[in-house]
Write a structure and sequence with these properties.
heterodimer; A: alpha/beta; B: mainly alpha
Chain lengths: 305, 256
């Protein structure tokens, strides 16, 4: 459905996207990358707001730039948080439904339906100016779905949503994907993406760093020493127990004296062991986290190895 | 679809918050008209009306055109809402022309209100018997369209178009008609003056004459001015539609 062939985009002297070749089909695909990675540029190329400086972008086999035929089958939920603030949510979605060539009655029906789907039926008549960030995200999503497009692009759609809102939107996107739609979601939060899909495009400084199944990348990462930080009031006692484990490579105490950081080659085994520190040995574990369980770690792995 | 685009834009442009300012401007012009007729006893009603129309109403049309024409697109880019317009299954040129038509309609309505206000302030109860008013209404309509078409084109081509348009409306349009030689051909105001055919006033040779663009020689006739303004409108709209369909318009923010 979507094909980029050696697509690059320059903004004057700055490169936004560098020689990207990929195809995207049905299901949820995540565009993963840190701020400035080129996610928004890629989405703008696919939605025909920008033209590639070199290479080509095709959507349904056509050049998407200012192409109404493409927009008939494409929905876009932008990252920007700007609206016609004087309108109500209902008016906003209705106007955009009319602009998708639906007559009044049909546009009205679709507006009601879309607002219900995103959980905004109750607040639809309020002015957008009074909406919370989460409500604004939902309204943007409603307008993107109003014409039941085959492809929906969502730029950071979970920004500003509370956990319940995130779950609702993720469920909705999953449903749409199951119905055969192509959903492309950009995000810079690995945890978010993992809840939506395993299919990723990893962008870094405008380049396509990796594509495919996020689990495979994770497995690769897990072969390298994985850092885990444990917060405890008795770091020496905890260290004594951990040091005996064969899969722990190193240990380091936090200078503040209330935590230690270890490296392990088998994080899954270590996480299985972790509860026994409290349950069997009675040691106080106040918290644990993994500095490697985030997007930066994925990039570090892919860039440095 | 086109009608809906036009209606939506018109509804936006005619929002109370926006239009209240212009009603206030028209009210001020009416009051100035009242004071003018009160304190310039030497002028006939026709002369007073002509002077007020040339100095105030013809400026209002340029000012309103600058404000509303930049709202057609520049404002959408500034407020980042342009993204919603450009990702709908509507040809870009249709969006542009429908919104421009809405801007033209509002500018015409505002300038007509100002002209009628001046006519009432000068002629009182017989304001609508003023023959110059009907000529002015036609002139203002074509002038509004010409300014709006030109300013929309400017706003498509340049960032911060409002500044350029306001400088044109007040700087260029006030000074160029007074220049010696044929430069007045480059001013929309000169064509509007030619169509309006306001009587020349001997008393208005100084500052007021300059404001009314009467210091220079305007040899344009209505038969010349009408087609030139129509060609200008068609040319600007055509070029604007092409430009908008071929160039990128992104919300104003740093490129990622």
């Amino acid at each position: 459905m979507i094909a980029l062939q050696e697509a690059s985009r320059w903004y004057g002297q700055v490169i936004g996207l560098n020689d990207i070749t990929c195809t995207l089909g049905p299901g949820v695909t995540a565009l993963l990358g840190q701020n400035g990675a080129g996610k928004t540029t890629m989405i703008r190329l696919i939605t025909g707001q920008l033209r590639p400086t070199t290479g080509s972008v095709k959507v349904f086999g056509e050049d998407p730039f200012a192409n109404p035929e493409v927009y008939r089958r494409l929905g876009y939920c932008p990252e920007i948080d700007n609206f016609y603030e004087y309108m109500s949510g209902q008016e906003f979605v209705y106007v955009l439904a009319r602009m998708a060539a639906f007559e009044h009655a049909e546009a009205k029906r679709r507006t009601t339906e879309a607002l219900e789907r995103v959980g905004m039926a109750e607040h639809a008549r309020k002015k957008i100016a009074g909406y919370s960030k989460g409500m604004r995200q939902r309204i943007k999503l409603a307008q993107a779905m109003i014409h039941e497009p085959d492809v929906i692009l969502l730029d950071e759609p979970l920004n500003g949503l509370d956990p319940v809102g995130r779950r609702d939107i993720i469920d909705l996107l999953t449903l749409l994907a199951e119905a055969g739609k192509t959903i492309i979601v950009s995000s810079h939060i690995l945890f978010e993406v993992e809840q939506m899909t395993r299919s990723i495009l990893l962008l870094h400084r405008g380049r396509l760093l990796a594509t495919g199944d996020l689990r495979v990348i994770r497995d690769l990462i897990d072969k390298y020493p994985h850092r885990i930080r444990i917060e405890t009031a008795q770091p020496r006692e905890v260290a004594a127990k951990i040091a005996a484990l064969p899969y722990v490579v190193s240990l380091q105490f936090d200078p503040a004296g209330n935590a230690l950081e270890l490296q392990t080659r088998q994080p899954a085994l270590f996480y299985e062991f972790l509860p026994s520190l409290s349950l069997e040995h009675g040691l106080p574990i106040e918290g644990f986290s993994s500095p490697d369980n985030n997007l930066e770690a994925v990039f570090r792995y892919l860039v440095e190895t | 679809m086109e009608l809906f685009l036009y209606q939506t834009a018109l509804k936006d442009f005619l929002r109370a918050k926006r239009i209240a300012v212009w009603i206030a401007v028209c009210a001020v012009i009416f009051l100035i008209g009242k004071l003018w007729t009160e304190y310039t006893g030497t002028l006939s009603n026709r002369e007073a009306y002509s002077q007020l129309s040339s100095i105030l109403v013809f400026r209002v049309v340029a000012l309103a055109a600058a404000i509303f024409s930049t709202a057609v697109l520049s404002q959408e880019v500034e407020q980042k809402t342009v993204v919603y317009l450009l990702t709908r299954p509507v040809a870009r040129w249709k969006i542009l022309l429908a919104r421009t038509a809405a801007a033209m309609t509002v500018v015409i309505l505002i300038s007509w209100l100002a002209a009628i206000g001046v006519s009432i302030s000068v002629f009182g109860g017989s304001a609508f018997s003023n023959g110059l008013l009907y000529g002015d209404l036609k002139t203002l309509a074509i002038g509004a369209m010409a300014y709006a078409a030109l300013f929309v084109l400017v706003s498509l081509m340049f960032n911060r178009a409002m500044i350029i348009c306001l400088m044109f409306a007040f700087g260029w349009e006030t000074s160029v008609p007074n220049f010696p030689g044929d430069l007045y051909h480059l001013s929309i105001y000169s064509y509007m003056s030619a169509i309006a055919q306001h009587p020349q006033i001997e008393a208005a040779r100084g500052f007021l004459g300059a404001l009314a663009g009467q210091l220079g020689v305007n040899e344009l006739t209505p038969t010349k001015a009408w087609p030139i303004l129509i060609v200008l409108i068609a040319g600007c709209l055509g070029l604007g539609a092409w430009w908008f369909s071929h160039f990128e318009y992104l919300p104003r923010e740093d490129a990622e």
